[in-house]
């Protein structure tokens, strides 16, 4: 999912409560925008880069498996359909950046600001709840994915040393605990949004492991001399008829997860300069970035499927389709772990800040919440320890780690997250906001078409969620909590 540029989400808490001064356009002085802020300098290319960085994440690793469930015809078709829906609803969302006039209307700095301006306060609460539950789920998904990659490094070295004779079964628990301890330390950094380099590191890492996956897929196809897979996907016999249906639904959720970036689109648009209007620039950027991402996904997903056919692993780099060169797999998996360590924080910081802000407003007199204890650090400025922050953030990390240890199923969790976030955040809210802003009449042909799109996407989301939940139920039949090894 697109992870790293989610740093922009941090502005949710800095910007949503700033008082902006709307300066008439002819008063805008050099270096200052019409809202009294420093002039924005973003272009089509910087916005496209942000979106590509945000989208190409760990979701790419489950695409070969998703295409294997659907086959050579339905797989790429579904991927194109998702790309089209995401592009179309993103253009609607881009129009909601300014309320009223597209060039001089009031700016909405974040996704939730846009919901507040167009749909009112009650919908903001619903949007916030979905957004924050999604973040909680992503934290669990990242813990699972990181531990799987750490185990893959250990197993690939073990295979190599034993000449591929030892099955090398190991438990995921120590790796999840290790990842959790790392996050305990990182989560205590109070102002993570200033670490801009994190986004760059995460972007480089996601391109590294995606490209290695693609390269290994190409090499495997060349080595096999044939293209694997079939027109209808995994055959009944390899799986039961019920499994085939549930897995096909789950594949929809996995593809949705790989594409989702609507949640940060408004924040990216807030970096773009005008004229031309920010909406015009953002629509171009969305077209470029969706096209590049789709091409990249097609290559990774289709090459993975061509290499392994029905046996395509749930996670391309850890499913042990590839054994050699083992050092290259180690580099790819290390890149995933580094990416996910940063991405976890980038995603969770807005939730941390939201809870702390709420607590500070609700109980301003409480010493635990309000008081910082200064701890001297040699060679650095003193560290401000806040006991509430220490307890709440540590509790959050521990809870997500324990849940990950109870449900260590990468594909199912990715499918649930994709299904849960796709319809409300990518389709429902953008369509509702656009309808309200453009005052589209109820029962007009435009209104009916938009509602039909929304309902169709809701059905897909429900099917994807059902498939992923069925997957978890099937996994739990053979799984013993905290004991299963791989």
Please describe the structure with a list of short key phrases separated by commas or semicolons.
two-stranded antiparallel sheet; membrane; Amino acid/polyamine transporter I; transport; transmembrane helix; about 475 residues; transmembrane
Textual characterization of the structure:
The structure is a single chain. With 486 residues, the protein is mainly alpha-helical. The protein has one domain: Up-down Bundle (Amino acid/polyamine transporter I), CATH 1.20.1740. 65% of the residues lie in helices and 3% in strands. The chain has helices spanning 11-15, 44-55, 63-94, 111-119, 121-161, 173-186, 197-224, 241-259, 265-269, 278-308, 326-362, 367-370, 387-406, 410-437, 445-477, and strands at 98-99, 106-107, 372-377, 380-386. The protein has a two-stranded antiparallel ribbon. Strand 1 (98-99) and strand 2 (106-107) form a beta hairpin. Residues 1-28 have low confidence and may be disordered.
């Amino acid at each position: 999912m697109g992870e790293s540029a989610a740093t922009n989400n941090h502005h949710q808490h800095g910007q949503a409560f700033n008082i902006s001064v709307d300066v008439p356009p002819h008063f805008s002085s050099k270096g200052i925008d019409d809202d009294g802020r420093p002039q924005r300098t973003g272009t089509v290319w910087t916005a496209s880069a942000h979106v590509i960085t945000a989208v190409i994440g760990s979701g790419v690793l489950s695409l070969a498996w998703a295409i294997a469930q659907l086959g050579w015809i339905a797989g790429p078709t579904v991927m194109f359909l998702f790309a089209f829906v995401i592009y179309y609803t993103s253009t609607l969302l881009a129009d909601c950046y300014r309320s009223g006039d597209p060039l001089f209307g009031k700016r909405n700095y974040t996704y939730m600001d846009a919901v507040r301006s167009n749909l009112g306060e009650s919908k903001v609460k619903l949007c916030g709840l979905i957004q924050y539950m999604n973040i909680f789920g992503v934290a669990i998904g990242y813990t699972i994915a990181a531990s799987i990659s750490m185990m893959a490094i250990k197993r690939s070295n073990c295979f190599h040393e034993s000449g591929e004779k030892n099955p090398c079964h190991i438990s995921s628990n120590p790796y999840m605990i290790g990842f959790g301890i790392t996050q305990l330390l990182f989560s205590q950094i109070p102002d993570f949004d200033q670490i801009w380099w994190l986004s760059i590191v995460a972007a480089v890492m996601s391109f590294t492991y995606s490209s290695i996956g693609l390269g290994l897929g190409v090499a495997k196809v060349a080595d096999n001399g044939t293209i694997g897979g079939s027109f209808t996907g995994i055959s009944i016999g390899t799986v039961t008829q019920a499994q085939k249906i549930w897995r096909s639904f789950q594949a929809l959720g996995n593809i949705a997860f790989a594409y989702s970036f609507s949640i940060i689109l408004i924040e990216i648009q807030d970096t773009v300069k005008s004229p031309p209007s920010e909406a015009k620039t953002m629509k171009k950027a969305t077209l470029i970035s969706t096209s590049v991402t789709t091409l990249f996904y097609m290559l990774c997903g289709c090459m993975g499927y061509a290499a392994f056919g029905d046996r395509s692993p749930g996670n391309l780099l850890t499913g042990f389709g590839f054994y050699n060169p083992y050092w290259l797999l180690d580099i790819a998996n290390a890149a995933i772990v580094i990416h996910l360590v940063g991405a976890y924080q980038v995603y969770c910081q807005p939730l941390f800040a939201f809870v702390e802000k709420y607590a500070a407003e609700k109980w301003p007199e409480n010493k635990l919440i309000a008081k910082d204890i200064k701890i001297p650090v040699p060679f650095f400025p003193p560290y401000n320890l806040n006991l509430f922050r220490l307890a709440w953030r540590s509790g959050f990390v521990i809870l997500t780690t324990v849940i990950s240890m109870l449900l260590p199923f990468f594909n199912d969790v990715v499918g649930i997250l994709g299904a849960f976030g796709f319809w409300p955040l990518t389709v429902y809210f953008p369509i509702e906001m656009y309808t309200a802003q453009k005052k589209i009449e109820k029962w007009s042909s435009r209104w009916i078409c938009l509602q039909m799109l929304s309902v169709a996407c809701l059905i897909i989301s429900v099917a994807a969620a059902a498939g992923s939940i069925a997957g978890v139920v099937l996994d739990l039949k053979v799984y013993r909590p905290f004991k299963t090894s791989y």
